[in-house]
Amino acid sequence: MALLIVTGLPSSGRSTRLDELTLFLESKIKNYSTISNVQVVRGEDVHADLHVYESLARQWNQERREKGHMAYTDTCFDELAFRFEEPTSAARWHRPLFTAVSSCLDGNLEILPTPCEEIWEALTQAEVKPPKAVTLVRKKTANNGLELLDTATHAVLQALAEQRSLGTPWAGRIYLALPASFALPPLPLDVSTSSSFPSPARLQTMRRQFVRIYASKAEYADGLALTSHEAPEGHIAQLFVAWLQEGIASGKNP
């Protein structure tokens, strides 16, 4: 079964492109034996509420609201735009990547054609590659190292999110208060004034990288012994904060 994901900023024309692709693919499969139907899953199909979940998209959203159509609130739009991590062909899990471009220069709207034929070829003729090792479900180690990594890193990101919600200035030293079970004082995170706050998507990417690397070290016994410390969760949390600090300082945040 082929899977096609349509993504983009809110109110950027995803539904229009999806409708176009649906009609195109339905016409194609009539003469194609291995694909019998096109199943479309939209936000409303999974009960996604527009109120729960850049310049041209914002303009289109405003026009929808003025016409009385369903539209995002300004707050919701800002949050969705902040959380959106643009796909890149440099990432192997984003390939093949097709871009449908809309632009508005000097008041002239230009909508480039959707690359339907290229998408069809990718869906029907592309070589099916085996899953990457990173996507495979790993068996938990005897010492529950993966569980410790998951718990500790989630706690750090939650503490960071709480600081952001409190309006803590993103500069200097920030103290991250972890749950009492960690038996640690608040962990310091030092950031420079020139650093920008990483998006939630970027933070999750950094967390997954950290977990993958340290889980491998524990699995092959050539690095971190996750349960050899008196307070392993606290030790992992300290390592992860240092990891975040280095990543943020590198300036690779979107």
UniProtKB/TrEMBL annotation:
Gene3D superfamilies: P-loop containing nucleotide triphosphate hydrolases (3.40.50.300). The keyword Ion transport does not apply. The keyword Membrane does not apply. GO terms for molecular function: ATP binding. InterPro entries: KTI12/PSTK, P-loop_NTPase. Signal peptide: none annotated. It holds the Pfam family KTI12. Keywords: ATP-binding, Nucleotide-binding. Coiled coil: none annotated. Belongs to the KTI12 family. This is Chromatin associated protein KTI12. It comes from Malassezia nana.
